Amino acid sequence: MNLLFVCSRNLWRSPTAEAIYKNRQGITAKSAGTEPSAKTKVNAKLIEWADVVFAMEKKHKQRLVQKFPLETSHKKIVVLEIPDDYRYMDEELIESITTSVSPYLKGL
């Protein structure tokens, strides 16, 4: 299963999620950001690659749908509701991500 995690600048939240899931059996994880200053910018190819897109906040989902209407029209996009209050690999962030994402990974 291909998972794409999206936040604003691809600095803390989405790279943390990628790090959590990238070495799990049956999962390939990538991360990207919606802002022009993002370390890795989200693009159509990444969205098409993903089986599920996890957006950290509603605004990220809105930006994806607005900028990539064709690619997102039949794509499952889950809003995790994780605010930009954490640093990379923060313990609370890891717990919040795993708690929010795990229901979507049942059976893996």
From TrEMBL:
Ranges that cross the membrane: none
InterPro entries referenced in this protein's UniProt entry, alphabetically: Ptyr_pPase (IPR023485), Ptyr_pPase_sf (IPR036196), UCP029416_PTP (IPR016919)
Domain of life: Bacteria
Domain Phosphotyrosine protein phosphatase I as annotated: residue spans: 1-107
Pfam name, any one: LMWPc
Protein's recorded name: Protein tyrosine phosphatase
Provenance organism: Algoriphagus oliviformis
